[in-house]
Design brief:
CATH class: Alpha Beta
Distance between the termini: 31 Å
Helix content: 25-40%
InterPro entries: SAM-dependent_MTases_sf
Shape: globular
Number of domains: 1
CATH topology: Rossmann fold
Strand content: 15-25%
Structural class: alpha/beta
Radius of gyration: 18 Å
Length: about 240
């Protein structure tokens, strides 16, 4: 979708932002993209390069965190440091080699006592999923993901388990206070599978997506008291949306 075509969504998302700093960053980001240009870290305050260190994100003791695709686990180290020894995290990574490296780092960093690693995706549907690297989802290059039931099973070369977050949490004694994902292309699907969780737990959300994402207004309808902040994430087409009470 071009920036001209989704101008109405851009304006709606801008109107939902809680402060003038977020609006400024949103406007600047949209102007850069409309001009087909980009300046890395165009609006980051020095020393605040991590989206997790934004002043709107206040981590307290006993945080219960859902982390989706945290690369090699860097954010988890920060969460443990900021939230203390009594925080706990459920971490999802469906890519098997990435999952193995993540678990290795959890062991090296002595985080295994506060993390449940899950080799599965968080998605808009629960079940086996397969990916088509010839397709993509949304504005970012993200392999097109399809439920195995909708495919020619003989043609499936690889598959992974996926969960709706609501379905996964229904099997756990865990009420998240923070849901975060820094991987562009996933936010829409995370939100679609987490309506009950968001409405009942009202967790802080840190999700990376395009300025014209379509899930933001829906989440604000679910939880009108959310305050929305927007900050640079070091990615050309995406920034971080942070929603807090």
């Amino acid at each position: 979708m071009s920036f001209d075509a989704n101008g109405q969504i851009l304006q709606l998302n801008r109107a939902l932002l809680a402060d003038t700093d977020s609006q400024y960053r949103h406007d600047m980001h949209c102007r850069l993209l409309a001009a087909q240009g980009y300046v890395r870290y165009f609006s980051i305050v020095e020393g605040q390069l991590s989206i997790y260190r934004h002043p709107a994100v206040q981590l307290g003791p006993r945080e219960q965190i859902i982390s989706v695709n945290p690369h090699l686990g860097g954010p988890l180290k920060y969460f443990r440091q900021a939230a203390g020894a009594e925080c706990y995290m459920h971490v999802f990574e469906e890519r098997i080699h990435q999952y193995a490296n993540l678990c290795r780092n959890l062991a090296h960093w002595r985080l295994d006592d506060c993390v449940t690693p899950v080799c599965a995706a968080i998605w808009s549907g629960t079940g086996l999923q397969t990916i088509n690297h010839d397709g993509h989802s949304g504005i970012f290059y993200f392999p097109k993901t399809t439920a195995v039931q909708q495919c020619d099973r003989a043609a499936v070369s690889n598959a992974h388990q996926a969960y709706r977050l609501d379905d996964y949490l229904a099997t756990q004694h865990f009420s998240p206070t923070l849901i975060e994902c820094g991987r562009p292309g996933l936010a829409e699907h995370i939100v679609a599978g987490a309506e009950h969780t968001i409405k009942t737990c009202k967790p802080k959300l840190i999700l990376v997506d395009a300025p014209g994402c379509e899930w933001l207004s829906l989440v604000k309808q679910w939880v009108p008291e959310y305050k929305v902040y927007y900050t640079e994430a070091g990615r050309k087409r995406a920034a971080a949306y942070m929603l807090t009470l």
